[in-house]
Design goal:
Ribosomal Protein L15, Chain: K, domain 2; Four Helix Bundle (Hemerythrin (Met), subunit A); four-stranded mixed beta sheet; alpha/beta; 286 residues
C-alpha cells in the first residue's frame, strides 16, 4: 500500500469516538472486496453477508459456531480493532487479539502508581473503599485482606437470606469443583464470567493485566482486582439468582449462570462500568 493512498494512513478512528462491542456468532468473518463481512448460511443456496463496520467499533465478540479468515485478522489488526473469542451469550472469554491502543496514558499511569510502594498501598486502600463503602485507616495489605474477608462472609450470608437459599459457608475444592453444593458452584461460575468481562475491560483500555494492586502473583492480577470491585453488586447477584432458579429448572447450574450473567451484563452495562472503575482506580483525572 503506497503511503498516503486514499488517506488510509490517517483513517483509523480513535477508540474514544467508536461504539463499543458487536456480537457475531455462527458464521464466517471474512473480507469481501476489501471490506470486513460476516457470512452466514454459507452452505445454503442463499448465503447472507453482513458488512461489519470494523473501524467504528472497539471490539468484535465472536461467539460459538464461528470462524475467521487470515485476511480478516489482518484487516482488524491494521485498524486496531480488538477481536475476542467468547462463549455462548458472551460470558466467557477464551482468547483475544492484543489491542494496539491509540494512547499509552493509562498503562503509564498504572505503572507509575504500581512502582511506588506508598502509592500502591494507597490505590489498594481506594479499591477497598470502593468495595466496602468506607475508607479504612489500615495501611497493611494483609490487615485489609482480613477485614475484607470477614465482610465477604457476612455478605454471602445476607445474599443467601435475600434469595431464600440455604447457605453452609464458602467451600471450594479445586481438585473436584463439582463436589461443592449448588450455591458454591454458582459462585464459581459467576466469578469466571465476571473475570472474563474484567479481562475485556482491561484489554480495551490497554491497562497492564499483570500489575495488580491487591492481587500480586497471578498474570491477571489487575483483572482480578477489577472483577473483585463487582463481587457484591454483580458476581453474587448472578450466582444466587441462578442458584434460586435451579430449584425449579432442570438446566445445569453453569448454563443458568451464563444466561443470568448475560442478562445482568446487558442491563447493568457491566463492562462500561468496569472501564470507568479502571480510570477511577488509577486516578486518571489527576
Amino acid at each position: 500500500m503506497l503511503k498516503g493512498r486514499l488517506g488510509l494512513e490517517t483513517a483509523r478512528i480513535p477508540h474514544a469516538d467508536r461504539h463499543g462491542l458487536i456480537w457475531l456468532e455462527r458464521g464466517e468473518l471474512c473480507v469481501i472486496d476489501g471490506c470486513l463481512n460476516f457470512l452466514t448460511g454459507k452452505d445454503s443456496l442463499t448465503p447472507n453477508s453482513i458488512q461489519v463496520p470494523h473501524q467504528a467499533v472497539s471490539m468484535i465478540l465472536l461467539g460459538p459456531g464461528s470462524t475467521v479468515t487470515h485476511d480478516a485478522l489482518r484487516l482488524l489488526a491494521r485498524h486496531g480493532t480488538l477481536m475476542a473469542a467468547v462463549g455462548k451469550d458472551g460470558v466467557r472469554s477464551y482468547t483475544a487479539m492484543p489491542l494496539l491502543p491509540d494512547r499509552s496514558d493509562i498503562a503509564r499511569r498504572q505503572a507509575e502508581l504500581w512502582g511506588s510502594p506508598r502509592r500502591r498501598i494507597s490505590v489498594a486502600r481506594h479499591m477497598y473503599a470502593l468495595r466496602l463503602g468506607e475508607v479504612l485507616p489500615h495501611r497493611d495489605l494483609d490487615t485489609l485482606r482480613g477485614i475484607e474477608g470477614a465482610r465477604v462472609k457476612a455478605t454471602y450470608r445476607l445474599m443467601a437470606e435475600r434469595y431464600g437459599i440455604e447457605w453452609k459457608g464458602r467451600r471450594y475444592d479445586r481438585s473436584n469443583p463439582s463436589a461443592a453444593d449448588i450455591p458454591n458452584q454458582a459462585i464459581n461460575h459467576a466469578a469466571t464470567a465476571v473475570q472474563a468481562a474484567a479481562a475485556i475491560a482491561v484489554q480495551s483500555v490497554a491497562a497492564i493485566p499483570q500489575l495488580g494492586f491487591i492481587h500480586e502473583d497471578s498474570g491477571q492480577s489487575f483483572v482480578l482486582d477489577i472483577a473483585d470491585l463487582f463481587r457484591d453488586s454483580v458476581t453474587l447477584q448472578i450466582a444466587f439468582a441462578a442458584a434460586k432458579k435451579s430449584e425449579a429448572d432442570s438446566q445445569t447450574i453453569d448454563r443458568l449462570v451464563r444466561r443470568e450473567a448475560a442478562t445482568v451484563f446487558r442491563k447493568q452495562r457491566v463492562i462500561p462500568s468496569m472501564i470507568d472503575s479502571i480510570k477511577k482506580v488509577i486516578r486518571m483525572e489527576e
